[in-house]
Design brief:
It is built from twelve helices and 22 strands. By secondary structure, it is α/β, with parallel strands linked by helices. A hairpin with a 2-residue loop joins strand 9 and strand 10.
Length: 490
């Protein structure tokens, strides 16, 4: 659809854009990224003909762009520049209507049904229809931006060039605008090339990304191949981390600022635990990076307070998460700071251990109710609903872990828990085989993210050995406490 071949050009003797080549297919959305001064906008201006190319060619549908007349080019390419100058005061409707100019012929061209449909559709899709009779000069910068996008869409050109289309827009209008453009690309085969400052937006909405550095292409490809930590840090000279989007297979960047005022020493000890008949609570002085299967605030996040709450064995609300949140709020816990889980075990029987290694210490806390123990290898034979009981396991690490070490820590802890149940001969009452856990077990791994870096937590690492030993020991003691409380033989 559009082919750029060894394009160079700019404003002075030294070209800003240097021998750039790429192509964009029909229906594809290409995002152009790069720091200020990298040549993003200049490249777009050369493609659109606003600036002449010193070298190279731009080809549209197999024909060089320079061979099109001005009107022919406008019927092929719609352009939304970064800045707009208003020589006259137009209404919003009149401004959008200007997008139909390439489709007019002669001095007294009549307004067609196709013109009307294109204008109305563009105004509706960008959310500016209700401004139709207002002067564009009276609108905010974000509202004006949407009007000019509507003008470009009304042009109905098969290629759309956008220079920072979300500039001045709040997040709701950014989403609305990019959803509209993406829909046009997918449903109508619109080819889109857009300059972005926001790397995350570009990654979410574009099929491919072109990353520029000092006028040249640094990388081009799928978002997951371009938005990589080393590439972004090299080009932007900024410290970032990449994470997957929670719902889409698209990478997102997170800025890593200097932790000014946030590097106060943080050490979690047994003295930070509080135990009562209602719950076990850990209050950390600062948030810990956490991965858990809790009821409240499950998943990953940063939390200061951890609650293992006692509930009756008959506990069965219609909305467990809602009831748990209400309970925590009533007890005075901040919902955004707190991870909450529950157990039918008497919480005074929690087993808390502190274990020291060369890197520092970890803490393990376990409550173990085994009345509804389950052998996971025999799970296909079960059809009853989960019952409250629960072995809840907390591992608190005074150290810095990467994401993979959190997962390894959970695996190591799960294996140690299963071994403890084997040692204590805990059996699944349905199958009479050795149990591996209960149907409602929860686990939590949290780290201070200070101190020594601990890259792995498998059972052959120092951290993994401490986790395995601590979880095994605390689980055995917790099971024994449960048996004693129930009057079972140990």
């Amino acid at each position: 659809m559009l082919q750029v071949e060894k394009i160079s050009g700019g404003y002075g003797e030294e070209p800003v854009v240097k021998s750039v080549s790429f192509h964009v297919k029909k229906g594809e959305m290409l995002g152009i990224l790069g720091p200020n001064g990298s040549g993003k906008s200049t490249l777009l201006k050369i493609i659109s003909g606003i600036l002449p190319a010193e070298n190279g060619t731009v080809t549209i549908d197999g024909r060089q762009a320079s061979h099109y007349s001005q009107k022919e080019f406008a019927r092929k390419v719609a352009v939304l520049p970064q800045l707009h100058a208003h020589a006259f005061s137009h209404t919003v409707r009149e401004t959008v209507e200007l997008g139909r100019y390439p489709h007019q012929s002669g001095l007294f061209s009549s307004w067609s049904d196709a013109d009307e449909k294109a204008v109305i559709g563009a105004m509706n899709s960008t959310g500016v229809a209700h401004y139709g009779k207002q002067s564009i000069e009276l609108l905010s910068g974000g509202e004006q931006q949407r009007v000019f996008v509507a003008q470009a869409l009304a042009q109905e050109a098969p290629i759309l060039l956008l220079d920072e289309p979300t500039n001045h827009l709040d997040i709701a209008h950014q989403q609305q605008l990019l959803n509209t453009i993406r829909k046009q690309a997918v449903e109508n085969g619109l080819t889109v090339i857009s300059v972005f400052h926001d790397i995350n937006l570009a990654s979410l909405y574009c099929d491919r990304l072109l990353l520029m550095e000092e006028g040249r292409i640094s990388r081009i490809g799928l978002p997951q191949d371009v938005v990589k930590e080393e590439a972004i840090q090299q080009v932007y000279k900024a410290l970032v981390k990449t994470e997957p989007h929670p719902e889409l297979p698209k990478p997102q960047i997170i800025l890593l600022p200097d932790r000014i005022g946030e590097n106060l020493p943080l050490l979690v000890t047994k003295e930070d635990f509080f135990v009562s008949s209602k719950y076990v609570v850990l209050h950390a002085k600062s948030p810990l990076k956490t991965v858990s299967s809790a009821v409240h605030n499950a998943g990953t996040g940063w939390y200061k307070t951890f609650v293992n709450r006692h509930v009756d064995t008959a506990y069965n609300p219609a909305d467990v998460k809602g009831e748990m949140a209400d309970y925590l709020a009533t007890e005075g816990f901040r919902l955004t700071d707190t991870v909450g889980m529950m157990t039918a075990v008497t919480t005074e029987h929690v087993e808390i251990g502190e274990y020291a290694g060369k890197f520092g210490t970890i803490l393990v806390a376990v409550t173990a109710g085994i009345g509804n123990a389950v052998d996971v290898s025999q799970a296909l034979k079960r059809d009853e609903a989960p019952r409250i009981g629960t072995i809840n396991t907390w591992i608190i690490i005074n150290g810095e872990l990467p994401d993979e070490a959190f997962i390894q820590a959970m695996i190591t802890a799960t294996e140690a828990k299963a071994k403890a149940l084997q040692t204590e001969q805990v059996k699944d009452p349905l199958t009479d085989t050795i149990a591996t856990g209960t149907s409602t077990d929860s686990m939590l791994v949290a780290a201070t993210q200070q101190g020594e870096e601990l890259p792995y937590a498998g059972p052959v690492t120092e951290l993994g050995r401490l986790i395995a030993h601590g979880v095994y020991e605390c689980t055995v003691r917790a099971v024994q406490a449960y048996k004693k409380a129930k009057g079972w033989p140990s």
